[in-house]
Amino acid sequence: MKLVINRQSKVPLAQQIHQAIADRILSGHLERGARLPSVRQLAKMLQVSPVTVVHALDLLEAEGLITRVHGKGTFVYEEHAKTDQTTERQKTFPVVDYLYRSQYWQYQKSEVPIDFAQSVVHPSLLPTQALADSIRRLIREEPDVLVQYGEIQGDLALRQALARYISGERITASAHEILVTNGSQQAIDLVARSFVGPQDVVVTEEPTYTAAIDAFRSRGATVLSVPVDEHGMRIDELTGLLDRCTPKLIYTIPSFHNPTGSVMSVKRRRELIDIASEVNCLVLEDDPWSEIHFDEPPPPHLKSMDETGNVIYIKGLGKILSPGCRIGFLIATGPVLERLVAAKTNADLGNPLLNQRVILPLFENGSIRESLRRLRETLRERRNLTLRVLERHAPDGVTWKIPKGGFNVWVSLPEGANANELMAEAEKVGIRFLPGSACDPNQIQWRHLRISFSPTTEADLEQGLTTLCHVMERYLSLLVNKKGKSPLF
Amino acid sequence: MKLVINRQSKVPLAQQIHQAIADRILSGHLERGARLPSVRQLAKMLQVSPVTVVHALDLLEAEGLITRVHGKGTFVYEEHAKTDQTTERQKTFPVVDYLYRSQYWQYQKSEVPIDFAQSVVHPSLLPTQALADSIRRLIREEPDVLVQYGEIQGDLALRQALARYISGERITASAHEILVTNGSQQAIDLVARSFVGPQDVVVTEEPTYTAAIDAFRSRGATVLSVPVDEHGMRIDELTGLLDRCTPKLIYTIPSFHNPTGSVMSVKRRRELIDIASEVNCLVLEDDPWSEIHFDEPPPPHLKSMDETGNVIYIKGLGKILSPGCRIGFLIATGPVLERLVAAKTNADLGNPLLNQRVILPLFENGSIRESLRRLRETLRERRNLTLRVLERHAPDGVTWKIPKGGFNVWVSLPEGANANELMAEAEKVGIRFLPGSACDPNQIQWRHLRISFSPTTEADLEQGLTTLCHVMERYLSLLVNKKGKSPLF
User: Fold this and answer.
1) Which of A128, A312, A412, B405 has its CA 20 to 30 A from that of B470?
2) How far apart are CA B86 and CA A358, in angstroms?
3) Where is the HTH gntR-type domain positioned along the sequence (chains A, B) (predicted)?
């Protein structure tokens, strides 16, 4: 176990140690029942006082992540890890690793009948026919794409088509400023590995996208967060935070924020751009689904306002076009782009050519726009259905935000409730959602949950969500009876 | 510019600083003509004595990588970087990055008529027809693969087929021990990011695969190397090195070593396995083309001898089956595998499903074996042609190793010659090869070059190689006339 703490950070050491150990437990890197090093060992390893370690362990114990057994030691709580079939020899394999956090995959490990946890689109809503036609033509006319490598930066024809597409989104970028990636996750990860390290601070929204937290924390960075309200990231809170530290990077999902669905106002977008330029930090603008707007399009992208090259724009096409091809891209300029292309080279030498050529015609003939229009309309109906079911069946005290776009609705349970406990109950009836704690760098959004209305059939959405409301009702009524219960794991 | 040095390392500090700056220059991260920080600034930044910095700069100057201008400062040598179109504002973008080395892409940036630099296979030698048939059937029967995500660890059906395939290679692995990656490069990179960090030592062969050096050095590791002879990695040299340090990982290409083509003997394989188990370090066994043997199959894979879980086996299928699908995989067990799956999640959430299903039938119906048999026979003829041309046209003093498998021949120029200078001459007539310096962690293999006989047509191989021999002859005769010239850049 290698824990990284940052003495330059304004985050108290005990809190950093707590976070580092919690990361490992919740990522499954520390086995259930595993024994932690002693207070003295941890203090020595981290070069902090034993009092600091004890304080960190107190926090972990309060969350139920560890148990202390008098005279025996401190152990990872038994319910927090997976069953394990490896041998004892393998379990104790004494190789230090550098992966500090990877929680996202814990939510992907098994299948449930009705899965509202993943922000993906039900296959029936995607342009299967157009993609199939494209691939048939491609194999007939250019079968050699199967046996040729593409360019590391991405197929030039596709980059040209993406540049044209994105100009329709008011971003001016040449094909040479585009890097094709293996989904948006790789784009986030390339930025993290190129520009984020153990001494750095990354600012995210709170809550935010789970796998982005994983990517930044895996680099050993300190992740600080700024709350989101209905107009997006709270810039007043951001400036307050900037008095205490200078971030290397600010990660934001300004349009139909994941998971809350809110939209950053034009004013705040301008302020964010100005701040980034002033303190000279990078802004990573993640745009998973700005095309999926239910009332009106969101304000201009941050990248379209960027005059200094501070903004890196990323977009995944898996969710909205073809998960089977899994293509994303980023836009950056100058040395920032060069570093990212070099990082892509080290990471995998480039995306497969086949997939890039499969989606190309949809951009060249513009059918992507029509496909997105249909997706938008269907998801608007899904959003409305979701709101209707919640209004009708959600128990008292449960609230939600009305998303103006995107794939998700962010639901809040009453004070004292815990979405992780609710999830355990929901899984018993074959339903899953994403607990809010997964979306929070500090794992404190215990009473919130994200429900995606895109991945299931419409019938499953209606039926599953109704059932989930009943599970909520039962869970909350039991909670009232067990008064005084800690709202933790 | 952020330079990382390792005070625990046995490598002298001056040499580490030299290496760190050389990496950045040769990777193109330091612009031509860029001014380096002053001796005093570097000494302060790195917390070393100015004498140490001066020694490092002496080494860089001797190699022609920097020039010192009296009263003005130290500058990156003008011929070592690309033309650049970014603005001054962007050039000086003051964001520290963490990518210490990525040289491989420097050799991929432009196209030449005859490219012997890339160990890829000419499209005509790959099973285009079988792949095209597979994709047509797939799209007819399961069009939904275009609009579905696969498992993060890789499509289960493919992993099962790969487990069966690899059992034919005498490696026993279940589908659950296989992780599908975006080519073998991603497999190397996932291992590097999971287990290698700035305080670690990685041992490679010398010479070795360029992009592997990039991946390890990008993690800030100290890369030490062990020479290779006709029986593979010199285990006596390895044990000598182990007296001085304990590596975290040993990276090896035991079968038809890249770039020299040598084969590690059974005895040395056993010794390596025993050593890794004793000092408890990981062994990364890269197997790009063990199926392409010209005389006899290589000895059993290291992974097949591994009883402790120390060995991670990786295999790319791009080179030998379908570059357009770019699929690779790795085999590992227990917590090592778990870390790698988590790293894959953070890296990109999994390979595209489409490509995995395209190659699946070739493994299921066994036609991959037949395809590899044909490739082996063609490449044996190519190897023989290469040797014939070299014997007939290579100038006196030029030598080469006879490869027993794989895609490359390793050629050595006489003492005093420099393969980088030769490459500049060859590029004038539209021919490229890989200079040996790219394959060496210490960039000292100046007089060697790797010629791949797989990427061109047979006619281009014969004609291009003949021309290259004439270029060599002219270059070497000029060199004799310019006696006393430094054999450096």
Assistant:
1) B405
2) 32
3) 11-79
Residue of B nearest to A96 (CA): B195
**Listed residue (B148, B112, B209) closest to B355, CA to CA:** B148
Please write down the long-range contacts of B243-246, taking CB distance under 8 Å and 24 or more positions apart. B244/B10, B245/B9, B245/B10, B245/B201, B246/B201, B246/B279, B246/B281
Q: Domain A128-368, what fold?
A: Aspartate Aminotransferase; domain 2 (3.40.640)
Nearest-angstrom CA–CA distance, B467 and B465 = 5
Please name the residues in contact with B240: beta carbons below 8 A apart, sequence gap of 6 or more.
none
Q: Angle at which helices A13-26 and A50-62 pack, to 10 degrees?
A: 50
Question: Residue A28's closest chain B neighbor by CA?
Answer: B338
C-alpha distance across the termini of chain B, in Å: 24
What is the four-CA torsion angle of B27, B28, B33, B36, rounded to 10 degrees? Answer: -50
Architecture of the domain whose range is B128-367: 3-Layer(aba) Sandwich (3.40)
Question: Going by C-beta distance under 8 Å and a sequence separation of 6 or more, which residues neighbour residue A320?
Answer: A121, A288, A289, A291, A292, A372, A375
User: What is the secondary structure of B8-73 as a DSSP string?
Assistant: TSSS-HHHHHHHHHHHHHHTT-SPTTPBPPPHHHHHHHHT--HHHHHHHHHHHHHTTSEEEETTTE
- Residue type at B26 in one-letter notation: L
Q: Is B52's pLDDT higher than 60? A: yes
Q: Residue B198 has which token pair?
A: 């700035």
Pair of tokens at residue B186: 């991603």
Calculate how close chain B gets to A108, using CA atoms only, in Å.
8
Full DSSP string of A202-271: EEEEES--HHHHHHHHHTTPEEEEEEEETTEE-HHHHHHHHTT---SEEEE--SS-TTT-----HHHHHH
Distance CA A143, CA A148 (A): 10
Q: A344-357 pLDDT, tens per residue? A: 999 999 999 999 99
User: A66 pLDDT exceeds 90?
Assistant: no
Tell me how close the Cα of B108 comes to any Cα of chain A, in angstroms: 8
| Half-sphere exposure at residue A130, Cβ-oriented, CA atoms within 13 angstroms | 20
Per residue in B204-262, pLDDT (tens digit) is 999 999 899 999 988 888 888 999 999 999 999 999 999 888 899 999 999 999 999 99
Which of A97, A139, A148 comes nearest B136 by C-beta? A139
DSSP state of B405: B
Say whether pLDDT at B92 is over 70. Answer: no
Contact between B355 and A352 using a beta-carbon 8 Å cutoff: yes
**Mean of the per-residue pLDDT values of chain B:** 89
Q: What is the pLDDT of residues A229-262, one digit of tens each?
A: 999 999 999 999 998 888 999 999 999 999 999 9
ipTM, two decimals = 0.84
> Using the beta-carbon criterion (under 8 Å), do A182 and B355 form an inter-chain contact?
no
Among partner residues B143, B148, B348, which is closest to A189 by beta-carbon distance? Answer: B348
Rounded distance between C-alpha atoms, residue A145 and residue B326, angstroms: 11
Encoded tokens for B340: 């790698």
* Distance (Å, whole) CA A457 – CA A462: 9
The band of A263, judged by pLDDT with boundaries at 50, 70 and 90, is: very high
Confidence of residue A108 (pLDDT cuts 50, 70, 90): low
Q: Is the peptide bond before A207 cis (omega within 30 degrees of 0)?
A: yes
Q: Which two tokens stand for residue A258?
A: 């994941």
Residue pair B192/B213 in contact (Cβ under 8 Å)? The answer is no
Q: Which CATH class is domain B114-125+369-481?
A: alpha beta
User: Was domain A13-96 assigned CATH 1.10.10.10?
Assistant: yes
d(CA B65, CA B32): 10
Partners of residue B342 in chain A, C-beta under 8 Å: 27-29, 99, 102, 105
**For chain B, domain boundaries:** 13-100, 114-125+369-481, 128-367
Cα(first)–Cα(last) distance of chain A, in Å? 24
